[in-house]
Amino acid sequence: MTLLTSWIESANSADTDFPLNNLPYGVFSTDTLEPRCGVAIGDMVLDMAAIEAEDLILLHFDPVFDVPYWNDVMDLGPEAWATLRSRLIELLSTDSPDQAKVALHLIPMADVRLHMPIVVSEYTDFYAGRHHATNVGTMFRGAENALPPNWLHMPIGYNGRASTVVVSGTDIHRPNGQIKPADADRPYFGPSERLDIELELGAIVGTSTDLGDTPSVAQADEMIFGYVLLNDWSARDIQAWEYQPLGPFQAKAFATSISPWIVTKAALEPFRTSTPEREVDLLPYLAEPKPMLYDINLSVILQPDGGEQQVIARTNYNTMYYSAPQQLAHHASSGCAMNAGDLLGSGTISGAQKDARGSLLELSWGGAEPITLNDGTTRSFVHDGDTMILSGHAAGDGYRIGFGACAGTILPAKPTA
Amino acid sequence: MTLLTSWIESANSADTDFPLNNLPYGVFSTDTLEPRCGVAIGDMVLDMAAIEAEDLILLHFDPVFDVPYWNDVMDLGPEAWATLRSRLIELLSTDSPDQAKVALHLIPMADVRLHMPIVVSEYTDFYAGRHHATNVGTMFRGAENALPPNWLHMPIGYNGRASTVVVSGTDIHRPNGQIKPADADRPYFGPSERLDIELELGAIVGTSTDLGDTPSVAQADEMIFGYVLLNDWSARDIQAWEYQPLGPFQAKAFATSISPWIVTKAALEPFRTSTPEREVDLLPYLAEPKPMLYDINLSVILQPDGGEQQVIARTNYNTMYYSAPQQLAHHASSGCAMNAGDLLGSGTISGAQKDARGSLLELSWGGAEPITLNDGTTRSFVHDGDTMILSGHAAGDGYRIGFGACAGTILPAKPTA
């Protein structure tokens, strides 16, 4: 596919994240406008509530865009999602007859504040990157036992905490928690000293299933509304002490950041790619009828307090072993009801190369090999004042489908009582 | 405390679950009334929406009882909860001047259907029963390694799935899932053959905290709205294969049943009792300023299809090592935001004796010692058609604070594709 041209000039640039081919969905406010649904186009945001109020788009007899979340649109289902996208393309294409009316409701991106794009129903995080699982497993259990016995048979996942999913730009206090140094008899309670990021893609479930329903992988793919970048902040020292036998809990509960723009499945369609050949055959309920991953370039950027941004890792979502539809089908395989607004983290996306690792735990090999920044300082884990930024885009022919940034700055831990 | 007498005769019986001292909160409907808030009193249900509509109770300028959940009442906070309880006691006491008006809105319990009493925000399950953790640890890791090293230092918990918390009386299909027999090379996908229950108490969080807040144990106690019985259905074979390294997932996601009546903290106040003496001192953030457990008699009842109910275990909530306020304080210790409607499972409540174990896994010692029922059949795990019932009450002086039943019938697994 090539660039779809728009009458909004900035959307036709080869290096904008938001050409007409993309049209990602977010929630924005300004000094005068309450938070509401918006669509990114070039360096502008389209006020969907205003467009709807003027009947330029009609999805439902009740308004669905004058609210600070896209859940109402999701509830309308995939046919309505397709109608919305084609209508937006009509309105914003070079030959749109409605250019004058629409132009009144474009707001410069620089003038808006971005908010959480959805109300997160529940958050589940997976562990579906083979390089990541192998790296972490090697550090924790040795190279022979790196992958758990179940890993090649199912997308391992665990329930995370939805209440602390925050939008890019939200500052995050370093968490306190129980930490037990290897040479200590007992744990202490204090600030994490091994604060990490996890580079992930988040899939947003757009339609619901009932208790007992078990969608196929193909049906699961149809249920997905879109994708965001996701940083699954992780306190490795808290995690190491707490995670046996029931999994990560407070080590992950303090914050999960997502990028503000939901990139739709429709925008990503030209970039579908397959999961890798299987070492062991998957059970039939996990079979993929077509390519379910996407070719999305990803990078991790670190910006020290007052310093410059520096890329510390580059990888691609096409390296994952399990796709989001496989994860969703597995998630519902017991009959677990899924809801619109459920957020599924892909698991950390690490490539085969050392500089393609999606966590500092891997990049610094557990702190044994700190990375050196351009300013001469080193990092094993995140320092107070560091801003961690995830970035991603799919590269089309003369255009890119960008995700925008998923950024978060770490503030010092709050004092303990 | 002794029995508070009511003009509703059935509430004055020594063996009703719902004397005036109790006043638990639920959601009910009838053939003519949509689901709404109700209060159990003796063998009647008080229609709170009607009582509110007639200005017999005024908690807020907007109605809060004409909805199918108690979340709006929770949002009003502990002072409103106290006002509500004292007003209900006034209206229902023997000497109430409003008896005639109130009597119009009492509906026989036998004529109502009960629904989920709250919208569950998120569900977290703990592992805070020492006998249970020791029993399970002994079976899985041997007696020397029964308790994980962290167990005596923190209430171990994991995030569960809120979307499948269901009210007592909801039938549950036996889940399908990945199962790997010990002697097989590979897993298969099929019905769980080791379907179990877990006898738990559920604490309902009634007030919210913001990201970064870290309530003390005393503050956490004030945040709790009330308690329900909770059956954390568990597919042990699915769990055994999936739970390493990130904890239980589909083994627990297919259903969690709760009793329909929220027994308030106020009703349980006379039954406070302490957690046991600590083998190792807890960190200060987990210190309890006063007794935080309750003396609640609990039993597990099994009813085979078409057969009679039989008690298969009796225990008490006072055997727990960690209280719900300790669990909540730990849950928020990283700064994790908590919300009204969060549900915290206590963990399986097992006593020291063999017949005081709160799961079939423990009662049958992993299937090695099946229990024999009165009808001559045996059980290692739950059979299709079995109804599993949890029951509980605190025993006062001439009255009881009952929880009603938490029941669920297991239907055969749905066929797999």
From TrEMBL, chains A, B:
Ranges of residues in domain Fumarylacetoacetase-like C-terminal: 124-408
Keywords, comma-separated and alphabetical: Calcium, Hydrolase, Magnesium, Metal-binding, Phenylalanine catabolism, Tyrosine catabolism
UniProt keyword Ligase, yes or no: no
Pfam families: FAA_hydrolase, FAA_hydrolase_N
Pathway annotation from the record: Amino-acid degradation; L-phenylalanine degradation; acetoacetate and fumarate from L-phenylalanine: step 6/6
EC number: 3.7.1.2
Cofactors, names only: Ca(2+); Mg(2+)
Domain Fumarylacetoacetase N-terminal stretches: 21-117
Name used for this protein in its record: fumarylacetoacetase
